[in-house]
Amino acid sequence: KAIPVTHLRDHTILVGYGRVGNIIGNDLKQKEQPFLVIEVSEGAVSKLRESGIEALAGNAAQPEVLKAARLAESRNVVVAIPEAFEAGQIVQQARAASPDVRIIARAHSDAEVEHLQGLGAHMVIMGEREIATAMLDFAKTA
Ligand code: AMP
Q: Mean pLDDT of residues grouped by 10 in the chain (142 residues)?
């Protein structure tokens, strides 16, 4: 059956609401930024809806899910999932849907950073590098 299409425009599409996505989502909610979440976990989707956050259930790599999120009319796509192959499929569709949408993605290796940038992500954050930087900062002050 067809997925109901969001009413949002110029919004942020947040893909994944795990350890990374929930921190981003909390901030967007606090700042009253228009956003919706795409999550493959039905349990997470139920909890999001209970807390008043718009959420689509499904795999964000599927074109019909991104269409329901009005990808072409979104402002930002934040790909906060750990799997770079699926992330790449999402980044690629976002770039194809709109030349203006800002794409931010998550990676866990230098090769993944290159892959996601090559597909059109503006900003790719490599998790382990950020962890190292934070640990190093702390070690310096210790
Ligand atoms: P974490 O690594 O803790 O930030 O969790 C990643 C989250 O992303 C989990 O809640 C997963 O259910 C979700 N996730 C992973 N792949 C997809 C996908 N293709 N589409 C939507 N949600 C996903």
A: 92 98 98 98 98 97 98 98 98 95 98 98 98 95 77
